DNA sequence: ATGGTAGGTGCCCTA
């Protein structure tokens, strides 16, 4: 069994002790991180390498930043979505054990109709175009991370409150669905089709964790060749319950490799 | 209608 994880860690420097203990406990083979919030020179590589991981990173100052940790050699690293001019570090792709993996941090979008919302939709359009190209390779491909989209009302604790709000608007959901229509499988939903309260993010505000005010916005999307290998997928909710938790819980995805 | 919390930065921005 081969375990992948996707986790918006919300600052890898603040969360480093938690990350290290979690890596020791869960021993994932590959970890796709988002919101590392650190430039590459200041990435805490040594502590992570000491646990047997190789690292690919694409960071920037203060915001965003993505990384891939892997127990196996990392090849063919691509920073940014090919063909998309972007000054924000939100996409990192590599090949590990013959499987293509990507760590994705889709823009939040702030509010429907804002400039940031337009940027989010533009990012998603280019993610779509690039995914279309990748799928012509007919290989196992896994894209995981923080998509900042709750695909359906089942993924939202209070659909009425969130109706047409950011993370839930029709245009965002359509963009997400277009990715699936290309042939990708939403791993969590595929194995838990009707499960309620299957959330990955709880706001720091309003006691959202304590009240279970959650949304499912972190996803694993699998190419057909990867979906054929899918065995288990779960949300590591324990990590949202600890001291100094990220506002996102990791998603764990097990493949028969 | 507003504010609540968290992280990084530098006298606010992003989420």
Structure in words:
This protein is α+β, with helices and mostly antiparallel strands and 257 residues long. Strand 7, helix 3 (115-135) and strand 8 form a beta-alpha-beta unit. The strands form three sheets. A six-stranded mixed sheet has the order 3-4-2-1-14-13. Strands 5-6-7-8-12-9 form a six-stranded mixed sheet. A two-stranded antiparallel ribbon has the order 10-11. It is 24% helix and 27% strand. It binds one DNA strand of 15 nucleotides through loops.
Which strand order do you get reading across the main beta sheet? 3-4-2-1-14-13
How many domains is the backbone divided into?
Answer: 1
What is the CATH class? Alpha Beta
Radius of gyration: 17 Å
The CATH homologous superfamily corresponds to: Endonuclease/exonuclease/phosphatase
Unreliable segments (pLDDT under 50, ≥5 consecutive)?
Answer: none
Main sheet makeup: 6 strands, mixed
Relative helix content: 10-25%
Number of helices: 7
Identify the overall geometry.
globular
From the 3D structure, determine the CATH topology. Deoxyribonuclease I, Chain A
Number of strands: 14
Distance between the termini: 6 Å
**Category by helix and strand content:** alpha+beta
């Amino acid at each position: 069994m081969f375990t992948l994880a996707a986790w918006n860690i919300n600052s890898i420097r603040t969360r480093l002790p938690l990350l290290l203990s979690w890596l020791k406990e869960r021993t994932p083979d590959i970890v796709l991180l988002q919101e590392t919030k650190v430039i590459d020179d200041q990435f805490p590589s040594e502590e992570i390498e000491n646990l047997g991981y190789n690292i690919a990173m694409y960071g920037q100052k203060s915001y965003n930043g993505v990384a891939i940790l892997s127990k196996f050699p990392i090849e063919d690293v691509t920073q940014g979505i090919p063909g998309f001019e972007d000054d924000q570090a939100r996409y990192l792709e590599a090949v590990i054990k013959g499987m293509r993996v990507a760590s994705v941090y889709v823009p939040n979008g702030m509010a429907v109709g804002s400039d940031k919302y337009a940027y989010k939709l533009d990012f998603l359009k280019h993610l779509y175009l690039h995914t279309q190209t990748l799928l012509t390779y007919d290989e196992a491909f896994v894209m995981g991370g923080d998509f900042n989209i709750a695909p359906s009302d089942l993924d939202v604790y209070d659909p009425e409150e969130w109706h047409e709000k950011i993370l839930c608007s029709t245009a965002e959901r359509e963009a997400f669905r277009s990715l699936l229509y290309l042939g990708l499988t939403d791993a969590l939903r595929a194995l838990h089709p009707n499960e309620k309260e299957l959330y990955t993010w709880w706001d720091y505000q309003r006691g959202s964790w304590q009240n279970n005010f959650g949304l499912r916005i972190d996803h694993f999307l699998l190419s057909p060749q990867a979906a054929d290998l899918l065995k288990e997928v779960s949300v590591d909710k324990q990590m949202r319950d600890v001291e100094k938790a990220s506002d996102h819980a990791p998603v764990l995805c097990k493949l028969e490799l």
